[in-house]
Amino acid sequence: MAFTLGFHIILASLGVAFPAMMLIANYLGLRRNDADALELAQRWSKVAAVTIAVGAVTGTVLSFEFGLLWPEFTGRFGEVFGVAFAIEGIFFFLEAIFIAIYIFGWKRLSGWAHFWTGVPVVISGLGGAFSVVAVNSWMNQPDGFTLGANGQVTNVNPIDAMFNRATAYEVPHMILAAYLVTGFLVASVYAVGMLRGRRDRHHRLGLLIPLTVAAIVTPIQFAVGDTAARSIADDQPVKFAAMECVQTTHRDVTEYLGGRCTSSGVKGGIGIPGFDSLLVGWSTDTKVTGLDSVPPSDRPPANTMLHWAFDAMVGICTLLIALGAWLGWAWWRRRDIPRSKWFLRATAVSGVAAIVALECGWIVTEVGRQPWVVYKFMRTEDAVTGASGVWVTFSAVLLLYTGLAIATVFILRTMAHRWRAEGIGEAEVPYGPSEPPPAPTPSTRSSA
Amino acid sequence: MSKPDAVAAVLWVGATLYAVFGGADFGAGFWALIAGRGERGERARALVDWAIGPVWEANHVWLIFVLVVLWTAFSVAFSSIMSTLFIPLSLAAFGIVLRGSGFAFHKMAHRLRNRQLAERAFGVSSLVTPFFMGTVVGAIASGRVPVGNAAGDAVTSWVNAPSLLTGALFVATGAYLSAVFLVSDARRAGDPDLESYFSTRALVAAVASGAIAVATILVYRADAPFIYHGLINEGLPLVILSGVCGAAVLAMLWRGVRRGLRPLAVGAVVAVVWGWGVAQHPYLLPKALTIDEGAGASETLTQVLIVFGVAVALVLPSLGLLYTLAQRSILEGEGEAPPPASPPAS
């Protein structure tokens, strides 16, 4: 399931944020009567069609997996967290309906009417992200129920479960991550094109629109992430201790960058004395809870990996802020993107870097919660299915998703090649009856 | 009506909508699979593409809706079903992935070989997915899913006459519904040749569905007397209604009448789904778990009903808009799939 989620999280991010980029291009195109921007919006809508379709099927598989892999988890707590998914269902419906209208509506709907059919897609993307991430927050900070003496779930309040303590920081963090990843990923595609010498207006816009969004979002994300980390130090001290490899509870804790996490502390990293305490409580005197606060069986595994994942996420985010600042500087001075080839090279790798950061964040929150699936209420080993043959399912899923990933990338590349072959700048204007309606006139009954 | 019953009704509404719209989608994939490579087959496939392109994704959200309501309101039933029947459910899930990606990819694929591969994936999975879902329903209806984590037999729970027949019934019903829909779509596209092509297929599928339905009921009589008893008592009016609708559709197809064809075909399927529900009431898992026993916390059920109300207020008008725009041919593929060409003048 971790694997399917790790795959789905990329597609879901694209599904949440890509329609927004598409609409920005659409808006600019309509507002300034800009054919290039409209053409971009149209092509992006086709890409969105593919990613949302693949995201939809991987999402469906996830809802199967809740039962196929974790029947004890869903069977016991489904009534607590399930309502959030029911709400997600509404948003998903609206997303699927309006993206279909938007994608298939280019030819026959008028410009602004068509633009507005895209707006619900963006809104439902945000709403869907809220609902799903609220459930993950609930797994980190379970709320909205009490456990009876014999382990019965009682006093269920689904609304409290949805608005648990972690929702306040996890949801914004994930939504911003979706915009950040999509922004850099889309920009990186056009940066590669420009590095290969395709420096037309189409590529410039394709780089500028997503990169501007990403450059605005990234510093906010840094602040939100910092708040999240500090809240985790409060809410899930063991997860925080594992992220920073704090073995014993003490004050004046050293912050380590990199290194290897051993039972006697970090070996080989760069240490900044007192900085970890400072980050947690604004003072080097702050006491940080260590892993020794809980028995070894309640500590997360793979501490070095967790520590690295956290550092990588923060490190990449810092570099991406620098990239955004570079763009901002050049724009402020010259109203243009930086001339240096290194800017394009950096943008070209920023997409992959952002995905790495996304997956690192996912590892931190999920592996960091182990051995719990519902923090302090249910262990992962107690949630799993009793059916044999889970490994067969798992291997098959692995194969299928690898194939799916290859096919998705392949198809998107094919589309890009075809568009390039069609020639840039000479494609037809998306709106208006540029060619006779392809279908025969509707029958009298349906047009009545 | 008690609150758990109300939520169970919500679940059934979702299942019905999935059976009708999702079923028709699967059926369309089935017709695309067996259309062959000839000129007419290509045209039939293009019609299927054109007809389901804008709507297939929304149609399948009903499945997610059903799963989510089931696990939220009836968590125990959900975990029992999913863990005992994990083999057919995993296969159905694989089918869903193959089908969705096959359909999303085949229009974009450039080379013929890749396109045919994507089309094949779409077609085959359109056949196997509803089949395995049908076996799941058959296993539940025939009382082979006990309460508990993987408490039932992983294989014999669904490899048995009633389950396999129910699987076949799902495939046949989907094919029947979609052929009826495609008759109208062919008319809308102005292709009388394909109209008669799908009309013939609708006839065949209607007869096959009816025959399999009768066979299924007979097998239930021997194997699952509880459901059989329900079908011929409380459920009898609905079973008769389904039969009447089905017979009317047959007669209309035979005589070439088109008006009212779709509502009647849908009615036949809806009546069967509700007949099953009525026959099974008050059980969620026949003889093992009642709706009341399986229901989650009262507060949760209230929230599910509220969410359903919001869904009715928001989603149904949006779906209506989508279907209306699609039916008025306002939604056209962006220069990709040309709608079916008119047949040669000869």
What does this structure look like?
The complex is a heterodimer of chains A (448) and B (346). Helices cover 70% and strands 6% of the residues of chain A. By secondary structure, chain A is mainly α. Chain A has one domain (2-431). Chain A is built from 14 helices and ten strands. Mean pLDDT of chain A is 80; it is low at 424-448. Chain B has a single domain (3-327), classed as Formate dehydrogenase/DMSO reductase domain (Formate dehydrogenase/DMSO reductase fold), CATH 1.20.1630.10. The longest helix of chain B is centred in the middle third of the chain and has 32 residues, at 192-223. Chain B is globular and about 55 Å long. Chain B starts with a helix and ends in a 19-residue tail after the last helix. Chains A and B meet through helix 2, helix 3, strand 2 and helix 13 of A and helix 3, helix 4, helix 5 and helix 13 of B.
Tell how many strands the DSSP assignment of chain B holds. Answer: 2
* Spatial strand arrangement across the major sheet of chain B: 1-2
Main sheet attributes: strand count, strand direction, barrel closure of chain A: 2 strands, antiparallel
In whole angstroms, the N-to-C terminal distance of chain B is 61 Å
- How large a portion of the residues of chain A is in β-strands, by DSSP E? 5-15%
What count of structural domains of chain B? Answer: 1
CATH superfamily of chain B: Formate dehydrogenase/DMSO reductase domain
Mean pLDDT of chain A: 80
Number of H/I helices of chain B: 13
- Find the structural class of chain B using helix and strand composition: mainly alpha
Rg of chain A to the nearest angstrom?
A: 24 Å
Number of strands of chain A: 10
- Helicity of chain A, in percent? 55-70%
Taken from the alpha-carbon principal axes, the silhouette of chain A is: globular
Question: Based on the structure, what is the oligomeric state of the protein chains?
Answer: heterodimer
Count of spatially separate domains of chain A: 1
The parts of chain A where pLDDT drops under 50 for at least 5 residues are: 424-448
Strand content of chain B: under 5%
